[in-house]
Amino acid sequence: MHGLPRRQHLEHPGGCAASASPERHVAGVDAGRLDEPPPRLRAPELRAAVRRRVESPSDGADLRIKFRYASESDRVRYPFGPRTPIENGSDRHALIVNKSTCTLYELFDADWNHGNPTAGSGAVFDLSSNALRPDGWTSADAAGLPILPGLVRFDEVRAGAIGHAIRFTAQCTRNRHLWPAGHDAGTSDQRCPPMGARFRLKAGFDLSGFSPKARVVLRAMKRYGLILADNGSDWYFQGTRDRRWRNALLDQLKSVPASAFEAVDVSSCTVDPDSAQASCP
Prior knowledge:
By secondary structure, the chain is mostly beta strands. 9% of the residues lie in helices and 19% in strands. The strands form 5 sheets. A 4-stranded antiparallel beta sheet has the order 1-6-7-9, with no helix packed on it. Strands 10-12-11-14 form a 4-stranded mixed beta sheet, with helices on one face.
């Protein structure tokens, strides 16, 4: 960090989510033990893809941001500055965490704008809480969920285990959402999955031809699955910025066909519709 040593992007959780333990959070649900939902909730034909997300420390001071979707944004001060990294592409996400307060700040369509910052929307999450955003509110993702917890971190892969579901996007989504999602931005086409839909890699999918690091990611997809969180490229999931990612690993993951995945129903794990806390029968 330069200037603000306690405020940085969360390359690793660093102990922030102390009271919101993975075992009690919906992202930590063992999707491999859940039942499949009716066929109508299955995804259309999708193709596997993976990309890297740009992240690094922010040097910004806390300031107000002008939001396009202000009524569904958290209108507080954000640690956003001229050197805060912004994701390439149309979504222009910016993800920042204050590790001293365990607070996550996420922006969609962020623009420094010569000192008059703007964004499409902004969401603030307490990383020690399971509380969800109000139903009907977007976040920096169309599902109203935080982005950062669903990213793959290289340190997890190196350690040999990813203990959470992975965020992904699809081109076609329904105009409805399933818990834990609280928002949607899709169509009435029933062939498209709703925001919040959970998918898992089929238990019988053979991992023997993949490298050890690729198997770590694929085992997480079998056990914890993936959560549909935004509109975008089909089967597009991402990792935190890290120079150790290699194209060979990404190419292996992109070889997994859409037919290797199946939808699962996590509704029975709901404790409170306003909370991401989960308790599965």
